[in-house]
Amino acid sequence: MRTPLRVSTAVVAAVVSVLVWACGGATPRGGEARAPDRVTLSIVGTNDLHGHVEALPAFSGYVANLRVVRAADEGGVVLLDGGDMFQGTLESNLLEGAPIVEAYAALGYDAVTIGNHEFDYGPLGDRATPSAPTDDPRGALRARIAQAPYAFLSANLMDRASGARASLGTEEHPVLPTTTLERAGIRIGVIGVTTEQTLTTTIAANVSDLVMRPLLDTIAEHARSLRADGVDLVVVAAHAGGRCRELEVPTDLSSCDPEQEIMAIAHGLEAGAVDVIVAGHTHQGMAHVVDGIAIVESFSYGRAFGRVDVTFDRGTHEVLDRRVFPPTEICRGEDCADARYEGLPITPDPRVVSATARATEHAAERRARAIGVTLTTTITRAGSEESALGNLFTDLMRAARPEADVALYNGGGLRADLPEGPLAYGAFYEALPFDNRFALVRMTGADLARMLVDNATRDTSFLSISGVHASLACVAGHGLVATLTRSDGRVIGETEAITVVVSDFLATGGDDVLGEVRERPGALRIEDDPPIREAMLAILTARGGALDAARLLPPGQPRVALPGERPVHCP
Question: What's the predicted TM-score (pTM) here?
Fold first, then answer.
C-alpha cells in the first residue's frame, strides 16, 4: 500500500502552538478542548474537478485549517475524491492529468475513485483512442496511477473476458477495490466504485474490454469484508451521484430526486453496512442522511467540498455523533483575502500553488490565442434541453462536413458556456475539451426519427441537431411520432437515405443513441483527424466577425419541438 503524503505532526503541532498563543490560549472554532473520551474524524470529499486546477490552491487552505482543528482535539481528517478529476481544461489535458495528481499529492489525498472520464485520454500522447494494436487504450490513466502516492480505487470495473476485477494500474501501482486507513486509533475502510453508466459515457474504444458489476452488490460485499476485518467506519468513494435542491437539513429528502443512482444504493444496502458516501458524477449537491448513510456531493469544477464529522467513543470506537455539513463554497480570487474557515484565514499551500502555477503557465499561450470571432452575448449550454451552444456545435459540424445532411451532438459533451466578447481558444476548449473525431453514419429518415423520439422520452442528455427541424407529437395509437423537415420545407421520408455526422463517442455506442444502426455493414465511417474541436475553430476563424446567440436559438423556434417537458410521456 502506498503511503499518502501527510502534513507532518511537527508542522501541525507548531501551527497549533502559534495559533493558541496568538489567540490568548483559545482553541480555533470547532476545536474545543478535547474531550478525553471522544475522538472526531472529518471526512472531506471532492468530486468532478474536471481539470480545474485554479480551485486547488484555495482548497488547500481550507484543508489545512481543518487539519489544525482536528490536531488540536487529537482527531483526524480523511480526504477523498469521487472521480472525474482530470478531463476538462487545457491546464490538465495538455499534460494528461499530471498537474492534478501533483496537486492532490501535495493536498494529502488518501484515496480517489476512478470516474468515467478518467478513460478519455486513452493511450499516452496526443491520440485519444488506440491507432495501433500495440497501443494501450488506458496508457494515460496508468501513468497517472503510477504517479500518485495515494490509492486509486475501483471495485466494480471488471474484465469482460475473465470476469475478474479489471487490471487498471501497474504491477507496482495496482488499482485496488478498497483501502484501509487509520486516524487517531480509528480504522477506516474505503471502497471505490464507478457509475454503471461508464461504458456509454466515455470513448468506447478505451473500455471495450470492460464490463460493470452492479454497484449495490459490489459495495455490500466489500463492506461485509471490511467489517469482518474490524474497521470502525466504512466510507464509499462513488463516482455515482444524486440530485437535491435543498442542502441545509440533512434529514429532509423532499427535494432529492429518488431515481438517482446513489439513492438506490443507499436504499438497497443493509442497515449499518456503510457509514458515509462521497458521491459524484451528476455535478449536483447533496448533504443528506439516506437510510442511515451520510451522503455528500459537491457540484463540480472545484466549486465546493463536502464534509461529514463522525465522533467516536475513544475506548469502544462506538459512533456517538455525526454531523453532515452543506457543501462549503471555495473562495476564488480576491474573495479569498477575507475568507476564513474554522475561524482561520485561507492560506494556500505553497506546494499546491507551485503545481497549479506550472500547469497554468504551460497552457497560457494557447489559452489566450484569439479566434477572430466576437460573441455579442454569452452562448449558453444546457445538457437536458435545446441550447444555443448545442445548435452552434451542430451547425459547425455540418459546415465542416458538408456531405452530411444532418449533424447530431449529445448534451453531455457541452461542458461550458462561451463568454461574451472576443473568443479565445481556451474558452472554446473548455466548452469542448474532448478530442473526439468525426464519424459519418448512413441511415434512413425512420432511423433518425426513432433516435429523436427515444431521446425525447428518456431522462438523458439532449440531442442537438442541425440540418432538419423535428416536430414531435403524441398520435393516438402510435405514441410519440417525429416529423423531420429540411430547411427548404421538404419532409424526410421514412425510407429516405441520409448521412448524419456525429462524434466518434456517439458512433461507438456513447449514450446508446445510434443503437443497431452502427452495426450495419458499411453504415459507419470514423475519421482519424482532425479533432472535431479544431475543425470547428478553423471554420470560425475563416468566418470571423460577430456571432449572435439569439440567431442560434430564436424565441419560439426550437429545432426540436416537443409536446411537453422531457421525458415526454404520451397518454
Answer: 0.90
